[in-house]
Amino acid sequence: YLVISRTRHKFGERARMAKNTLSTEFRKVDVDELDEEKFRDEPDSSGQGNEDDQVTRREQEVKKLTLSGNNLEALKVALEDPPVHSKEKNLKDRNFGVVLDVLKQFRSSDVEKSVKGLNSGQVDILMKYIYRGFAEPTENSCGILLVWHEKAVAAGGLGCIVRVLTDRKTV
After folding, report:
1. How far apart are CA 136 and CA 153, in angstroms?
2. Phi, psi of 13 (to 5 degrees)
3. Measuring CA to CA, which residue among 160, 71, 161, 62 is closest to residue 117?
4. CA-CA distance, 3 to 96, in Å (whole number)?
5. Is-contact 128 171, C-beta < 8 A?
6. How far is CA 152 from CA 49, 109, 125, in A?
7. pLDDT of the chain along its 171 residues, tens only?
8. Which residues are within 8 A (CB) of 52 and not within 5 positions of it... i.e. 6 or more apart?
9. Is the pTM of this model over 0.85?
10. How many C-beta atoms lie closer than 10 Å to residue 167's C-beta?
11. Is residue 86 a contact partner of residue 94, using CB atoms and an 8 Å limit?
12. What does the radius of gyration of the chain's CA atoms come to, in whole angstroms?
């Protein structure tokens, strides 16, 4: 601790104020850059090729499973690890097309059994794709998606809808 007298402190030196009290160096930090809401991820050029390859492999595997008649496994593969972190719209569009094609393969009577075969995380991802399908309708997709929505809400409850609508990561 420091005991200051008029001209001398405990150690015998003259007490002075800091020279840099008028310095404005601290004002050069832009606090708005640190705001969580304005955070921008740096694009990772190496990740794009990996995600593109992943979607291509998923397309091939899903096609093979649907041709063999194993629609539930094809749905699980289509829903696994969606490109939610990607900023590439065409990548997300391709993956959405894969999921939508699988959903169209099911008969209405098989939908409930298939949704019950999914875990809660998969139901949430399925619901994201259902809402994306509602936002970007194609021919005959809305009727199919309504059936899937009904069964997904029955399996996942209203919490499933809330989680999907509040999640910032889109498919």
Report:
1. 20
2. -90, 160
3. 71
4. 72
5. yes
6. 32, 14, 10
7. 454 545 555 555 555 555 556 666 666 666 666 666 665 555 554 456 788 899 999 999 999 999 999 999 999 999 999 999 899 999 999 999 999 999 999 999 999 999 999 999 999 999 999 999 999 998 889 999 999 999 999 999 999 999 999 999 999
8. 88, 91
9. no
10. 14
11. no
12. 28
Residues in the chain: 171
CA nearest to 60, candidates 40, 74, 44, 42: 74
Measured between alpha carbons, how far is 166 from 124 in angstroms, rounded to an integer? 12
SS (H, E, C) 65-89: HHHCCCHHHHHHHHHCCCCCCCCCH
Q: How far apart are CA 69 and CA 66, in angstroms?
A: 5
Residue 53 tokens, joined: 């390859």
> What's the CA gap between 139 and 145, in Å, rounded?
11
CB atoms under 10 Å from CB of 120, counted, come to: 13
